[in-house]
From TrEMBL:
Statement: the UniProt record of this protein carries the keyword Glycoprotein: yes
Gene3D superfamilies the record matches: TolB, C-terminal domain
InterPro entries: 6-blade_b-propeller_TolB-like, Strictosidine_synth_cons-reg
Keywords, comma-separated and alphabetical: Glycoprotein, Membrane, Phosphoprotein, Transmembrane, Transmembrane helix
Record-annotated membrane-spanning stretches: 28-46
Pfam families per UniProt: SSL_N (PF20067), Str_synth (PF03088)
Family: Belongs to the strictosidine synthase family.
Residues covered by the Strictosidine synthase conserved region domain: 177-262
Lineage: Bacteria, Bacillati, Bacillota, Bacilli, Bacillales
Protein name, entry field: Sugar lactone lactonase YvrE
């Protein structure tokens, strides 16, 4: 005969455990909630690493209206030229029409073309051991490079590298980014930020840390032309060499510095309220400027600039957690401007197969597209049909 008394005791103990379990769960939940609330309070009380400046960013242009920013599919049919360079930040060509571009791992690639204009296998031309961004051939045929880690470099045809400048006025060139070369050999290039790296804190802070520099190959001296730029980026000279442009990525504008004429030594705004973050600038044979737009406008960034308190809070968030929020929108975009700053047209890939555009370079009937980490990979091109 079964022991009903023992069974009854065990049954009672099981019921008691079931009754106590919800209490334990509630206590555990309340403890966890208290820890979270304490963490939030501590997070809010910890001082922000920056002192943000309020900025009412202009309303972003619409891609739907019938204006030069109107959305189209001109970049959607892009052809892959080479996938050897993963992120071809900038694109230039030598006198023979061979394409050169740098990659984020330090390598600079050369891509030749056959008689029909078809791209051939990419070859490694040089390795800066840094991150080469801007590239341009000088009159001697040497490749001048702005490397964000190494400074301003010169690379001869055998691949030998010489550092031209990594300091100005006794202080470091923090982040040499893009360049152009004048007819007299002067090299104009951007020093993006004294932060020395790309960081979300800078965009949240909304203070200007960039510069436009000039290197004189005769005196081998580097001078500062402009300071106080909001993330100084792409650089391009006008066809006549009377001014030089520099992109201010974080304020969606192109700034013009006058080199000749009655305005010499002064600066003004060449184009403003761009539909995204302008990156590199190239000039075509018509004297027009092509601007790569790394990402279209990010609404949360514009909203953040309206509230220094919110910007300060965002700057405390670990950047590893913000990588997704600051990634480029999957919408390829490049813009063409006339010599007076007028927007002629825009080229889009709303499908997002080609995005994170840094460079748009017109060459032999094609528009060549470069990108940076965070965007699509490889060198692409599309026919220059209007």
């Amino acid at each position: 005969m079964p022991n009903t008394q023992v069974r009854s005791v065990k049954s009672t103990e099981g019921v008691n455990r079931i009754k106590r379990s919800p209490r334990k769960i509630r206590r555990l939940g309340l403890s966890l909630l208290a820890v979270i609330l304490l963490g939030v309070i501590v997070f809010l009380l910890v001082p922000s690493p920056i002192e943000p400046v309020k900025w009412l960013a202009p309303t972003a242009p619409s891609f739907q209206k019938a204006d030069p920013w109107k959305q189209n599919n001109k970049l959607s049919a892009a052809q892959l030229v080479s996938d050897a360079p993963q992120f071809p930040e900038f694109i230039t060509f030598d006198k023979a029409g061979q394409l050169y571009t740098g990659d984020s791992d330090g390598k600079i690639y050369k891509v030749p073309f056959d008689a029909e204009g078809n791209p051939q296998k990419a070859q490694v031309f040089a390795d800066t051991k840094g991150t080469p961004n801007g590239l341009k051939f000088d009159a001697k045929g040497d490749l001048i490079v702005t490397d964000i880690k190494m400074g301003l470099l010169s690379i001869n045809q055998s691949g030998s590298i010489e550092v031209l400048a990594n300091q100005v006025n006794g202080k470091p060139i923090y982040l040499a980014n893009e360049l152009d070369i004048a007819q007299d050999g002067s090299i104009y290039f951007s020093d993006t930020s004294n932060y020395g790296r790309v960081t979300f804190k800078e965009i949240a802070e909304n203070k200007p840390h960039g510069r436009l520099l000039k290197y004189d190959p005769m005196t081998k001296q580097t001078t500062v032309l402009l300071e106080g730029l909001y993330f100084a980026n792409g650089v391009a000279l006008s066809a006549d060499g009377d001014y030089v442009l520099v992109a201010e990525s974080y304020h969606y504008q192109l700034t013009r510095y006058w080199l000749k004429g009655p305005k010499k030594g002064t600066s003004d705004i060449f184009a403003d309220n761009l539909a995204g973050f302008p990156d590199n600038i190239t000039r075509d044979e018509q004297g027009h400027f092509w601007v790569g737009i790394f990402t279209t406008r990010l609404s949360f960034v514009d909203q953040m600039h309206r509230s220094p308190w919110l910007a300060g809070i965002m700057a405390k968030v670990p950047e590893s957690l913000l990588s997704g929020a600051s990634a480029p929108a999957k919408h390829g975009l490049a813009a063409e401007f006339g010599p007076q700053g007028e927007l002629i047209g825009s080229w889009h890939d709303p499908e997002g197969s080609l995005y994170g555009v840094t460079t748009a370079a017109s060459h032999n009937g094609y528009l060549y597209i470069g990108t940076a980490p965070g965007g699509s990979k490889g060198v692409h091109r599309v026919l220059l049909t209007k």
